[in-house]
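Appendix B. One record, verbatim.
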Amino acid sequence: MKLAINGGEKLRTAPFPAYNTIGVEEEEAALRVLRSGKLSTYLGTWHADFYGGPEVRALEAEWCEYFGVKHAISVNSATSGLYAAVGACGISPGDEIIVSAYTMSASATAALVYGAIPIFADIEEEYYCLDPRSIESKITPRTRAIIIVDIFGQPYDRDAVNAIAKKHNLYVIEDAAQAPGAMLGDKYAGTLGDIGVYSLNYHKHIHTGEGGIIVTDDDTLAEKLRLIRNHAEAVLSAKGITDKNDLINMVGFNYRMTEIEAAIAREQLKKLPALLEERLENTAYLNEKLSQIPCIKPTKIREGTKHAFYVHPLQFDAERAGMHRNSFIDAVKAELPPTLLREESTVLLSYGYVKPLYLQPLYQERIAFGKDGYPFNLSNVTYPKGLCPITEEMHFNRLVTHEFMRPGMTKNDMDDVVKAFEKVWENRSELLCD
């Protein structure tokens, strides 16, 4: 059977079903807000509405109850949440923050916003979160925090990382954008560090189009987060905040969530358990099926954790396949169609994830703010190729990610994905001849 990449017939042409969690409940919630006439009640001055309107406050209370945290602070994006978290931790220009190179860019640029220097640590070979041993090796007297990412939905190694943070008096900011509902023991991802950040971006587990939630059990951090969210500098005097130490990073922004977004998020949160369970069932099915292909290594899950599977990560064995990963995956993609509502993304199957962040021009040229390269000009840190060897090996050679385990995918849909992999494996000699 000739491979589609070589001109043969595609295994499937009908688009895969859309991942669309928006229903009547969200429509009614949005209409409720529209009919109220109050699309936002935030005021950027010290007032009863400084903390937002009824939908925002209800969402924050419900998020606290669901995730078992003391404080939830809604924001307009997880990126804003990360920025606010760095500010609340009192980070200063020239400080260093240990970050992952294998994640969305904001997990590292959050350091730059406050003039800190991102220090890239390497990832775990099996779980893809930051490796505690690499974190420890990157700590200097200038280190102030760790931004740890629950990448792909896998909770980080809390015991090891938090012990390092305690030893060196560091904050742990947990980027749980991809891991709502994931758990380590009896604690939810996002609640494992000092501050956690969730995403409500349109392609996350649950969404409001754009949006985010910050969580913490620390009263002082929570108040700073709320101030940074909403023009902090405008209310400090009214709140009686005049001590110099309390003024650090209290230049606020507008990171506020709207009432419509909050109302939609309240309905989405109710759906999270069922949506997550379907992801877990689908991933288990695909893990078992795809691991029968000799060159595919299934996902490994950290002991004692519940994964959330934002994507399904696999590893490719080039030696078994007799070819580079990219050639094999390109052939699989050629057999499959795009997904409804994500047509612009072509086939939701990738080799690697994102290019290691330190290889971006921003870090290679050490240019961020202004012509003199602030804040890189405060440091002699460089970002050479080879800085994080496991990250580079995974991205350029071994890691495979896909989204075919999303809720809405039927067994027949997933079987077509498996058949595409099988077809390429069985006819790989066509690729070896090229």
